[in-house]
Design goal:
The complex is a heterodimer of chains A (299) and B (225). Chain A has 299 residues and is α+β, with helices and mostly antiparallel strands. Chain A is built from six helices and ten strands. Chain B is built from nine helices and no strands. Classes of the chains: A alpha+beta (299), B mainly alpha (225).
């Protein structure tokens, strides 16, 4: 009896522990491939200029709901509409949403304290469309419709004016989509590239305690962190600089942070020496955690 | 007609299974070792040892340990076979001498230096330093005893020495089990396996030695009766 249990558990061990490391280990990197705006003309004192930030919500017009192929469903992205230049009745700006930086241009008309804007994106990107919004000194609201009629995607938004300023002391807030009833300590970041194979990266309370922008981290500070924590702590550095995340899970996580404004697609030049050091340290531990944490090889 | 002797020998079967078990994990250790060929100061474990690997003496200790310990592990695998020990005495002696030389001269001292720089502070540093000291000490005693012809004492200390050699495997195996079952954070896991990785092995070795002792005593009493 004992023998058979022993051999059975041996066989189990053999079948499970077959490699020393995770060969598919991959540190989640958010590639910055986007172009930044070259011509930004600001006229001081114009109260419409600047960032207008808020939720980019689905707006259903028809009775038949469109079928979503990705995770747009139930998750409202954060949009940053930037008004960059107004000359006469012509307006130029750009929007940052889903890690995409898209310029737009169109017309602006004023009527009794309100401004009416209609602006189009260039149209050379499959997700380009047309913005129609009104704005005053404090609010910007309206809709966006995709050029592609087949999609019939429409979105609405009510945005508030926000000043973006890098602040190294910003700490993470407990994000709103977290189910705290189920897991008191653990937060779940869903990375659902496919609905059939949901993958959960979990992070703990540590992500609220460790700020990698204003603290010089040493090995003992990060040695006990799991990969989910390491990932969030490192990417919070980018988020503080207003990095527009392309990675869905990270975007979803940081979009839920009130202070977060997606501004830039490349922030590498703006990182402080402390941040650069911490990123390198965290990356080493993330790579190690991905490869060895749940494998036979040494951590 | 000894080869058709079908007597089912549990002890032999257990030993055979254990041999396969250790051989398999020695193979995994081999895979870990070849990650460090050619010498690369950023490979695998060294990713998180960047502060230490800058020091030349740590580099020497680390690569000495990695490149020699694997042979200690492999050599030890054949030393406990009665068949080899009895029929190929010369092999047993030569392999044993290489084992002792590697542990005393290279793998042991380099392990001690690495133990001093272990991750996790004094708690794990003490564990790994003790491990290295006991490893060297037991191996030395085993050698000393066989030179004097004290076979039983030699056996016992070799069992202890090899139990500590196998901590390379048990430490990683325990770590893997803890992570799979409890999902503990990496450093908490490390605190546990730093000590359990060799104490458990040594405990098993002591049990084996003790049971053999009582078996021997029983045999003696039977003879007396």
């Amino acid at each position: 009896m004992f023998k058979s249990i022993f051999s059975l558990s041996l066989i189990l061990l053999f079948s499970q522990c077959t490699s020393i490391k995770n060969e598919n280990a991959n540190v989640t990197m958010d590639e910055s491939t986007l172009v930044t705006d070259g011509e930004l003309v600001l006229e001081d004192g114009n109260k419409l200029y600047g960032f207008w930030v808020g939720k980019f919500e689905m707006d259903f017009q028809d009775e038949d709901y469109p079928i979503y192929e990705d995770d747009e469903f139930e998750y409202n992205k954060k949009i940053n509409i930037s008004i960059d230049k107004i000359v006469g009745e012509r307006i130029e700006g750009h929007s940052v949403v889903s890690g995409n930086y898209r310029a737009f241009s169109g017309s602006i008309k004023s009527d009794s304290g309100r401004y009416f804007v209609e602006a189009r994106e260039p149209g050379d990107h499959p997700n380009d469309g047309i913005f129609k919004f009104q704005m005053n000194d404090t609010m910007l609201w309206g809709t966006w419709t995709a050029f592609d009629k087949k999609d019939s995607v429409r979105r609405k938004y009510e945005l508030k004016r926000r000043i973006f300023q890098y602040d190294s002391t910003v700490a993470l807030e407990e994000a709103e989509y977290v189910d705290y009833k189920k897991t008191k300590q653990e937060m779940i970041v869903e990375e659902d590239d496919s609905f059939e194979i949901p993958y959960y990266a979990t992070s703990t309370q540590k992500i609220y305690e460790i700020n990698a922008s204003n603290t010089f981290l040493n090995e003992p500070d990060v040695a006990n962190l799991k990969k989910g924590d390491l990932l969030i702590i490192r990417n919070a550095i980018y988020a503080r600089h207003g990095y527009a995340f392309k990675n869905k899970a990270l975007r979803r996580f940081f979009d839920a942070q009130d202070w977060y404004i997606p501004v830039n697609s490349d922030i590498t030049d703006e990182l402080s020496a402390t941040e650069r050091h911490n990123i390198e340290l965290l990356m080493a531990f993330e790579k190690n955690a991905e490869e060895y944490y749940d494998h036979f090889g040494r951590f | 007609m000894r080869f058709i002797n079908l007597t089912f020998n549990y002890k032999q079967l257990g030993k055979g299974l254990f041999f396969l078990f250790i051989a398999y994990f020695t193979y995994l250790m081999w895979l870990i070792t070849i990650q460090y060929i050619p010498i690369n100061l950023k490979a695998a474990f060294l990713q998180i040892k960047q502060n230490e690997i800058k020091r030349l003496h740590y580099q020497i200790a680390f690569f000495t340990h990695v490149y020699t310990s694997i042979f200690v592990l492999i050599l030890g695998l054949f030393q406990f076979s009665d068949c080899i020990r009895i029929r190929f005495v010369k092999f047993h002696r030569t392999a044993g001498k290489v084992y002792v030389a590697l542990v005393l001269g290279l793998a042991g001292p380099s392990g001690l230096i690495m133990g001093y720089y272990a991750n996790g502070g004094w708690f794990t540093q003490i564990s790994f330093c003790l491990l290295a000291i006991f490893w060297i000490w037991f191996t030395y005693l085993a050698y000393k005893h066989i030179r004097k012809g004290q076979v039983q004492k030699h056996k016992n200390f070799m069992l202890r020495s090899y139990a500590l050699t196998l901590s390379a495997i048990s430490l990683r195996l325990f770590k893997w089990l803890i992570v799979i079952v409890f999902e503990l954070p990496p450093m908490d896991t490390y605190y546990i396996v730093a000590w359990a990785g060799w104490l458990v092995n040594l405990g098993i070795a002591e049990i084996i030695i003790f049971s053999q002792l009582s078996l021997l005593n029983n045999a003696k009493t039977k003879v007396n009766i």
